[in-house]
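[User]
If only I could read C-alpha cells as easily as an amino acid sequence. I have put the entry right below:
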Amino acid sequence: MKNQITFKPDIGDENATSIDIRELIFKFLRYWYLFVIVLAISLSWAFLKLRYTYPLYESSATILIKDEKEAGQISEESLLESMGLESGKKNIENEMLLLKSSLLMKEVVNNLKLQYQYYSKGRFHKLEYYTSSPIQVINWKPREPGMGFSGEILPAEQGSYALVIANKKYKGEFGKEVITPYGAITLSWLNSSGFTNPVILVISNPEDIAKSYASNLMAVQVNKSSTAIKLSFKDTVVKRAKDLLTELMRVYNQQTIEEKNRVAENTLRFIDERIKLLTGELSEAENGVEQYKKRYKLVDLSAEGSMILGEMGGYNKEITTNGVQLEIMKSIEDFLLKNKNNFEYVPTNLTLTNLTLTGLLEKFNQLLIERERLRTIYGPAHQDIQFIEKQIQNLRQTIVDNIQSIKNDLKITKNATSDRRNSLESRLLSLPQRERELVEIERQKTIKENLYLVLLQKREQAALSLAIAVASGRTIEPASMSNSPISPNRKQIWLIALVIGFTLPSIYVYIKNLLDDKIQVESDILKNTTVPVAGVVSFSSKGETVVVKENSRSAVAEMFRLLRSNLDFIGAGKNLQNLLITSSISGEGKSFISINLGMTQALIGKKVMILELDLRKPKQELYMGLKRSPVGITNYLVDPKVTLQQIIQPSGLHPNFDIISSGPKPPNPGELILSARLRSLVEELRKTYDFIILDAPPIGLVADALQLKDMVDATLYVVRQAYTRKGQLQIIEDIYVNEKLPRPFIVLNAIKVNRSSAYGYGYGYGYGYGYGYGYGYYEDDKS
C-alpha cells in the first residue's frame, strides 16, 4: 500500500516562494568566482576607457534670425521698408541649412586655421595644443589642391628644426620655406612657449575638415513660434568649440550684409549712369530756354496765353509723367537685354506706377538672392540651382514682354493727351510764334528736370540702404564653454561596467541552469516527482568512504544521523528492518550511503547486515577496506553446501556491523536474484539482525532490484547532486505510482554544504519534526 506520509511541502505553503528565491540566490553564489572575474574585467575596461578616451566638451550659442514682420519690432530693416526698400522674410529651415553648410564652415576653418592641428607626443595617446603650440604654420603651399600630411617636428639647433614625414627628415629654419614632396611649408617658433619636446603636426584638406565640422554642428529651432536658432558643437578642445561657433555667427552675418549690398550697389550703378546722361540733356534744355528768352526778350505771356498755357500745363504734366515712365521702362528693358547672358539684380526702388511690373521685378531679384543662397549651401552644380536659373530666364522674358505692353499703353495714352494738348495749341495760333516756341522749349526742359529729380531721390535712397545695411542674425546667447566634459560620462561608464560585471555572469548562470538537466537542489526533485525526500547527505571533502564513526560530529555524519531518524517516519509506525538501496545509474553513491547508514544503526546498538546484491559491480569490500572474500552470496546461491556462517564476515568498522559480500561475478545475476534460497537467506538474517541493508544494482540499468520487492520493507533511492539527470526521476516516480517497490523514498547525495549553500538551514517534514540543523555549527569539523 502506498505510503500515507508525504515529505513534499504543500504548494500553498507561504514559505515556498521565499525558499525558491533563496535557492535562486544560492545558485548564483555557487559561481562567485565567475562574477569576480567578469567584474574585474569590466572595471578594468572602464578604467582604461576613462584613462585613455579624449574628453568631449560642448559649446552652445543662440542666434536670432531677424523677421520684423512677424516679431512686430522696429529695426533698421523696418525703417528701410518704410522708405520703399523691401526686406524679404527669412525662412528658418533655409537659414539652418546655410549655417550647417560646408562652404560657410570652410571660411570659418580658413579664418581660424583649423586645418593645422598640433599635438604633443604622449606615452599612449596624443594631447592637442590648439592655441598653445610652440610651433605655428605661417604659410602652406600644397603641391596639389587639398593635399596635406602628418609629420613630427623635432627641436634642433637654435632657430632650426627637423621635420619628419614618412620616416624622411627635412631640415629647416623658422621663418624660411621648406620644400617637401607634399608642398612648401613655412613655420614660426613662439619663443615664449618654448620648444624642447617634439610636436606632431597634421595638415588636412580644409574642405574635409569643414565637412567634418559641419556634420557635427547641431542647429535646432528654439520653438515653432520663434525665429531663434540654437547652435551647439562638440569637440575635444573646449576653446576651439567656442571659437568655431563665434566665428560661424560672424561669417554668417557678414555674408548676409554682403548679399543685401549687392542689390543696392547695382541700383546705384544704374542710377549714376542715367543721371550722367540726363545731366547733359537738362543743361542743354535750360540753356535753350535762357537763350530763347534773351534773343526775343520775352518776360511774360498774354492773359489768354496764360490761360491756355495753364490748361496745357496739366496736359504737359501728364505727358511728362508718361514720358518718365517710358524712359524708365526703356532703361529697365535695355538693362535686361544688355545682361541677357549674365543675370544681375534689377533696380527695384524706381518710381513705377504699374504694380504688376513692380512685383515681377521684386520676384526677379528674390530669385537671384535665392540662387546665391543655394549656391552657398549646395554649390553651383546642384539641380535646384539649375531649376531656379530656368525660372529666372523665363521671368526675365516675361518682364521684357510686360514692359513692351506697358510701353504701348503709355504711348497710346500719351498720344491721346497730345491730341487734347494740340487742340489747345490751335488756339495759340493767334499768339506770337515766339511764345509758342518758348512753351515747347520749356516743356522739354520740364520733362528732363522731373526725371532728373526722381533719379536723384532714388540714388539717395539706395545709398542710404547701402550705408545702413544690417545683418540678418542677432546674437542672443554668445558661445559658451562647458566646464566639465559631456563625454565620457564617468558615472555612466562605471555603472555600465558594474552592470556588465553582474549581468553577463548572471545570464551565463541562468542559461546554464536553464539548460542543465541534472539535479542540483532538493527543489529539482520536488518539481519532477511526488516521491518523498527523506534527507540529504553532504559531500565528503576528505574523500573518505566511511564518514560516520563513533564520536564523529562532522556535518555529513550528522546528516546520516538525521536520515536514520527519518526512517521512523518512512515506517509509518511499523518496524523497518529490511531496506533496499538502489539508484538510477552507477556512481550515484548507493554503496557509500549503505555503509554509513549501516554505521548509524550500529552505533545505537542495532545488529546491522549489508547484503551486497550488486553482483555485477560490487564495491562494499573495497569501501570497507576488506580483503576480497572468495566466498560470498553468489557461492551461497549456487552451492547448497555453502553455509550462512561461511559467507558472513565482520565489516571491521563496528562489532555490530557485518557484511555478506557478492563473491565471484556470476554469468546469470538476474536468475540468482530470483532464487528461493536468497529469500530463505533473508528470512534467516531477520532472526539475527535488527537492520538489513540490501545493496542492489542501479534500477535504471538492470531490473534486478525490482525482483527484491518481496524481501524488503522500504526502498531508498539515491540521487546525486550534479550527476543524476532530472529525467531519471521518472524511474522512481513510476515505481512509486505503480507500487513496484514498497515505500520508496529519495536521499539526495553529495550536496556541497557551505555558507552559500541552500542547505544551511533545517527542514521540517511530516508531523513537524525537523532534521538538518544549521550546518555552519560544524564548519570547524570538516569532513
